[in-house]
Amino acid sequence: MSPLPLPAHFEADRVDELRRVDYAQLAETAPEWARRHGVTPAAEDGPRIGLLAVDLQCTFCLPGFELAVPGAVGDVERLCRWIYRHLDRLGRIVVTLDTHTAMQIFHPLFLVDEEGRHPAPMTPIALDEVEAGRWRVDPSAARQSGLDPESGQRHLLHYCRRLAAGGKYQLMVWPYHAMLGGVGHALVPAFEEAVFFHSVARSSPARFETKGRHPLTESYSVLGPEVREGPDGELLVTPNRELFDVLLEFDALVVAGEAKSHCVAWTLEDLLMEIGRRDPALARRVYLLEDGSSPVVVPGVADFSPQAEEAFARFAAAGMHRVRTTDPLESWPDFPG
Predict the structure, then answer these.
(1) In terms of domains, do 197 and 320 share one?
(2) DSSP H/E element including 289
(3) In this structure, are 113 and 76 located in the same domain?
(4) For a pLDDT cut of 70, what percent of the chain falls above it?
């Protein structure tokens, strides 16, 4: 099957712009475009093909925003093209949204040093520094999280130890980002446009999943938090069992988003663990868009490219497929239909 033409509204040179999406216009043009190109409702599909789009938000993708990932604009452009070109075969889009407030364990306001100063963004919080009292929970942050200062410090120590024991990234102080209600939390307009157009053209509403609101744990993965339990065994965040079921019901699941080294990688790690519990052969239904994700790189501060490559190599070894948006679907291994 030949790829579909791009709809007239798509402007590749505006992917990096923050602008208003004209929903009313898209709602008029999408059904007509679908009729012209023989695109039928997704409910009529044979093989069920889904897209998991991870955190394609302004905060990560647009230049000048808080945690803009180098390469993200190109990733978004290629992904939008891929959605439009294969809109007749893509049945549903699942969108994740990183969602934060000011007083969370990975934001500067949560921690103070021995002199009461908050850490700068991109400061790694090492376990031995927490054990030595170099970093402490700000008393105000502890109270706002429902803890007294002593309990807050117990949690911080427990948290960093659990990260180390579980092979996770050490705690990093990130810039304030993906702030709930802020423009950085919103989807990149060009991608939001593609999602809305797809929903109307295929009569298939997108599914939106938020993550990351609990103040006492990070949630790189939309499927579960970095640390699930507090120091006394209390549950912080439960795994997203319903979403596991949704993703593993697709005959093919395509995955893209930001950042490859963090939220994409840890979501896939959780998905792979669940696949191992259910049926390892399900890994062959997962397709990783190599040119639809980029790792966190902060020049002179941190480069997570090696960690991203190591993770994707591990996923491929387990049976997931590394593909590109420019590859014909017919060349994707095991691709249905």
Answers:
(1) yes
(2) strand 286-289
(3) no
(4) 100
Distance in angstroms (rounded) separating the CA atoms of residues 227 and 155: 11
* Structural domain count, the chain: 2
Report d(CA 260, CA 7) in Å as an integer: 28
Query: Measured between alpha carbons, how far is 190 from 294 in angstroms, rounded to an integer?
Result: 18
Same domain? 73 vs 113: no
What is the chain's mean pLDDT, rounded? Answer: 97
CA proximity to 72, closest of 298, 254, 292: 292
323 occurs within a structural domain? yes
Mean pLDDT score, 78-99:
98
If phi > 0 it is left, if psi is from -120 to 50 it is alpha, else beta; for residue 28 that is alpha
- Say if 1 falls within a structural domain: no
Which residues sit opposite 37 in a β-bridge? none
pLDDT for 337 equals 78
**Contact residues for 327 (Cβ-Cβ < 8 A; gap 6+):** none
Q: Tell me the pLDDT tens digit for each residue of 25-65.
A: 999 999 999 999 999 999 999 999 999 999 999 999 999 99
Predicted pLDDT at 226: 96
Task: Kindly report the CATH number assigned to the domain that includes residue 238.
Answer: 3.40.50.850
Looking at the structure, tell me whether residues 186 and 283 fall in a common domain: yes
Which of 145, 173, 201 is at the close of a domain? 173
Same domain, 119 and 256: no
Handedness of CA 289, 188, 80, 69 (dihedral sign): negative
- Decide if 173 contacts 121 (C-beta within 8 A): yes
Sign of CA dihedral 51, 54, 55, 60: negative
Closest CA to 133 of 172, 162, 160: 160
Find the angle CA(222)-CA(321)-CA(263) to the nearest 5 degrees: 20
The whole domain housing 134 covers: 108-173
Q: Which of 173, 203, 224 is the last residue of a domain?
A: 173
